[in-house]
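sanity check this record:
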Amino acid sequence: MARLLKVLLGVWLAGMLLSGSASAAVREFDLGVLTSGSVQGLFQALPFGGETTDIYEFDVGGTGFTTVGASLVSLLTTPGSSGASFNLSTQLLEWNGLSFVPIPLTGTTGPAVVTSADLEAASGADGGNFFDRHYELTVSATPLGSVGIASYGGSISAVPEPSLSLLVFGGIISMAFLGRRRLTASAG
């Protein structure tokens, strides 16, 4: 798995260098419609030294409000070490009819982050981004170094209220899973 990640990261970096945009990258991903009880895994490899912003676009299915939360943890693996972390910055945004605006109190920064908001059900063709979605989760990072693999992983989920305890529990599970991967990678 580590070898595959290295190959994928190398191919992606080569493409970025050839396109002349290795210093900053914005990548967009469509998560579709999050319905109550659904969970989407988030995992991305990142280039070293340049800022990368990943935008996860989604709608919320059902009626009324659903709590949508994300938990992410960073992982920097270098040969011969047990790994280190770097900061991730996350923000939930919503479409207001003209542009995407930050949802208050959903911006977080750190090597492990958890954010959530109660979002109104919204779907259809009046969103404002590439996939015509109504909500976005942005994840930005600038891993420093030049050797190894920089990545992050976690999940975004939609759960019926009350959900804060479930989001915290999901974040702990995500961090434990990635921490175990870090230990396994350093032992091999």
